[in-house]
Amino acid sequence: MQILVTGSIATDHLMTFQGRFADSLVVEQLDKISLSFLAHDLEIRRGGIAANIAFGMANLGMRPVLVGAVGEDFVSYRSWLERHGVDCESVLVSGTKHTARFVCTTDTDMAQIATFYAGAMSEARRIELGPIARRVGGADFVLIGANDPQAMLRHTRECRTRKIPFIADPSQQLAFSDGPEIKELIDGATYLITNEYEARLTEQKTGWSTDDIAARVTHRVTTHGKDGVTIESPGVDPIHVGVARVARLADPTGVGDAFRAGFLAGLAAGLDHRRCAEMGSVLAAHVIETVGTQEYELSKAAFLDRLTEAYGADSAHDIGPHLRCPRP
Ligand SMILES: Nc1ncnc2c1ncn2[C@@H]1O[C@H](COP(=O)(O)OP(=O)(O)OP(=O)(O)O)[C@@H](O)[C@H]1O
Ligand SMILES: [Mg+2]
Fold first, then answer.
1. What pLDDT was estimated at residue 328?
2. DSSP-derived secondary structure for 241-274
């Protein structure tokens, strides 16, 4: 099964300042503010929704097709993703803008000063899915994740016109979109995936009730953080899958993306929704244990152990044959 994963591709540049920003702020002079902090360290983390999801899928042995826009600085990030099995051939490289970047400095009070630069991401609206689907021999699913808003609308419309099943995953973009735009993004989706908060936000902004949404999307997947996930489908009782054990909570960033990666890998393997959600939950648990969204190392054995522990030997038995993790 070919899955195109569309959405943001970005890096986070995280610095720490060993002092308090507040000590340097002169309230009466804020209109002339000019401050520079000496950062103690810099960490550059690979991220972006589409890249995180594709990375997770590749770790489970798939070859996802990453679709998004980056700058010429993407070289080392590209080789990292390709080395892990992500197809980056259809990533659009802007000739003028840098890859989207989040730059954040945190002080000893955990106060933060941050800037987000969308950069090349805004060129994702130039991407046409048709030629990409042709290159890979047809697309079975397109995930439409948070991205340049025009790109999200374009991808969604193109999926509808070309009758390619799509997975609506608007996440952060919901906060910046209005009702009509959100309606356009989810109407006709085969899957709508959101967390609990985004689910309510979607209903509030569109004015669509839970039933209205059920009439417009085939399956609705709602994640509830440590309370697991619910999958609603027509004609069957909702499925609830609890979380897998987490040995240590290191950093929750990327947990939602990891869940999606596992869920999609399950779908691609033709597994039922319960098993898909179990795969998603186990991958999510792995990500929580490492700092960063693409820093975990996954082995097939560790994945199966955690599946067995959380969901029983039957689960590992059903999923095991479909796992083609690069590490045994
Ligand atoms: N504390 C936890 N322990 C174990 N699993 C978790 C935990 N938090 C989240 N998960 C798993 O990850 C899934 C997605 O989590 P959540 O609902 O928090 O997504 P999200 O809010 O979209 O996250 P993100 O901050 O990455 O956007 C959950 O359904 C669950 O399977
Ligand atoms: Mg999320």
1. 87
2. EPPPP-S-----TTHHHHHHHHHHHHHHTT--HH
Residue among 128, 191, 126, 122 at smallest CA distance from 162: 128
- For 319, the token pair is 């999923």
Place of tokens 């955990």: 110
The catalytic site residues sit at 257
d(CA 52, CA 49): 5
- Distance in Å, CA 80 to ligand 2 centroid: 23
Is-above-0.90 flag for pTM?
yes
CB-based contacts of 160: which residues, under 8 Å, 6+ apart? 166, 188
Q: How many CB atoms lie within 10 A of CB 111?
A: 12
Q: How far is residue 156's CA from residue 167's CA, in Å, rounded to a whole number? A: 9
Alpha-carbon distances, residue 77 vs 5, 14, 127, 201, 250 (angstroms) = 16, 17, 20, 33, 23
What does the pLDDT look like over 232-283, one tens digit per residue? 999 999 999 999 999 999 999 999 999 999 999 999 999 999 999 999 999 9
With cut-offs at 50, 70 and 90, classify the pLDDT of residue 139: very high
Tell me the pLDDT tens digit for each residue of 191-222: 999 999 999 999 999 999 999 999 999 999 99
For ligand 1, say whether the CB of 59 is within 6 Å of any of its atoms.
no
The torsion region of residue 241 among left (phi > 0), alpha (psi -120 to 50) and beta comes to beta
Q: Which residue is closest in CA terms to ligand 1's atom 28?
A: 225
Please tell me the distance from the alpha carbon of residue 17 to that of residue 107, in angstroms, as a whole number.
5
